[in-house]
Specification:
The protein is an alpha+beta fold. Helix content is 57%, strand content 15%. The protein contains five helices and five strands, in the order ββααβαββαα.
């Protein structure tokens, strides 16, 4: 009987809160399970396969365990974000079912999960909306440039046609004058 091969691991990443998380998993479904997320973050573009060598190396050292590879802090204005200092925790706490449930009722845990899912959904929708807006603006700029180039081309063609028609008009007027002069000469 042939030896069973270990599954090929890929490294996936997403941002949860102010932390970028990586996980080495055989597939996307396993990555979502490791992050304890029910919504498909890959479909919304909130998660993807990683190429960051530091994150890949750290995730491959602990397969199926989320690893924080970048943490951000919010400025006082709440807008600009920058990587946090290395002193901050870089690995998630180990989750123990008993410790998680200690002091919390099942209802409270469901409410907390529902709130987290709603927050994740809203963040994914916001990211998708921002992406759609950026795509729309880019397409509008391209369309505006194309229309401007077409207008310039049409104006150039119009000036060329006007000049040609004026030249033809002058030639016809000269022929008409010569014809009138010949008619006067025959009388």
């Amino acid at each position: 009987m042939p030896a069973k091969r270990a599954p090929r691991l890929k490294v996936y990443g997403t941002q949860i809160g102010l932390t970028m998380w990586a996980v080495a998993a055989p597939n996307r479904k396993a990555a979502l399970k490791a992050w304890d997320v029910r919504k498909d973050l890959f479909a919304s573009g909130a998660a993807d396969e990683l190429n960051d060598p530091v994150a890949v190396e750290r995730a491959l050292n602990t397969p199926l365990t989320p690893v924080a590879y970048k943490t951000f802090t919010v400025s006082k204005a709440g807008q600009a974000m920058k990587p946090a200092r290395k002193a901050e925790r870089s690995e998630p706490k180990k989750r123990e079912p008993d410790a998680r449930a200690a002091g919390a009722t099942e209802l409270e845990m469901r409410r907390a999960r529902a709130a987290k899912d709603a927050r994740d959904d809203a963040a994914a929708e916001l990211k998708a909306a921002r992406g759609a807006l950026a795509d729309f603006k880019s397409a509008a700029r391209q369309k505006r440039r194309a229309l401007s180039a077409e207008r310039d081309d049409l104006e150039h063609r119009m000036r060329t046609e006007e000049a040609k028609l004026r030249s033809q008009q002058r030639a016809v007027e000269k022929r008409l004058e010569r014809a009138e002069d010949r008619m006067k000469g025959h009388k």
